[in-house]
Amino acid sequence: MAFTKKTVRDADVDGRRVLVRVDFNVPLRDGAVADDTRIRAAIPTITYLKEHNARTILMSHLGRPKGDGPEPELSLRPAADKLAELTGFDVTFVDDTYGEKAAAAVAALQPGGILVLENVRFDKREKKNDPEIAQRLASYGDIFVLDAFGTAHRAQGSVVGPAAYLPAYAGFLLEKEVDTLTSIFADPARPFVAIVGGSKVSSKIGVLDHLIDSADTLIIGGGMAYTFFLAKGYSVGSSLKEEDWVERAGEMIRKAEAKGCKILLPIDNVVADHFGEDATGEVVDSDQIPDDRMGMDIGPKTVELYCEAVKGAKTVFWNGPMGVFEMDQFAKGTEAVARAIADSDCTSIIGGGDSVAAINKFGLANKMSWISTGGGASMELVEGKALPGVEALLDA
Ligand code: ADP
Ligand code: MG
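^ Phosphoglycerate kinase, sequence as received from the core. Prediction below:
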């Protein structure tokens, strides 16, 4: 599916005030940006605007302020500094969002200039999509650009609000994210192998359902596998399980059969007697999990099976670790699958906070075709939902 909204390429930005919602919601440590991935991801749009002589006004949230006024430790100033450092551009920061000081900084902005406003969530009306907030922000711009993929699933004042008052376009990050994450359902190169893991079936129901419709093979790992085991009648000992979802897991297995989507479940597992850093693993087959053991990772025979499936794939989508990868002794399954994806020529698309953390931990990020910057937003796309921020943009 091609992207169906207008992008910043379609807008005349020369000399005009372009209000851009970016996602600079970055982790901070000691007052500095600890991980600049999200800032880097916004640079293509910001560079384009500068090169086309726009007056660029950037806004974002950061963290979870109370919404009753400024909280210095959640200021966007470090993000503005990081943007200046990464691009070499002059970047002005103003410690105001909705007041006269912000308006004055916007008015002083020259063509080619870049201004970063203070955290939009210092006023709690932003999250409520209050029209006063939206109008105030819209008054700063002639054009609105949404590039904050990570918050595009939230109908909030700075995300969807300005689109009611200004012509609204997508930035390059938003375009690429939506295009990539929807095209795997429209016309994937086949075989299309989807890998879903992580802790719970319940949090991934929509994702699993939609993937079954499209994937040739669905690989299940992580804690959610044990709820599928229950559906198959295996006992799972003290493994993570969701009794209320067993029936649904069984339905999914049947739906996959009917649709011709092959589901792979672990054939062996690394189990431990408790959940902890000091726990040691032993390998057991999936129908042999002792009552006093819990599954912590996929076992070696499963690793082989899954890596073989990945090797034959043209498209791989991966969300959710294969085991408790935070503990080294239970990270082998996740690492082996990540390496198989990295070593393959397939188009590889990764989504989900913990999956991305795992890939970074193994140093494999640059071997993947696309790593989504949005957790919740990417999952909603993979569930087949429309994102309110995207919906509000002009149709192409
Ligand atoms: P993502 O953020 O990539 O979408 P999730 O949040 O769904 O992934 O799941 C990640 C978590 O699942 C990790 O913290 C990991 O430790 C946990 N997990 C994986 N396998 C197991 C397991 N067998 N038992 C308990 N927790 C698990
Ligand atoms: Mg997670």
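The longest helix spans residues 37-51.
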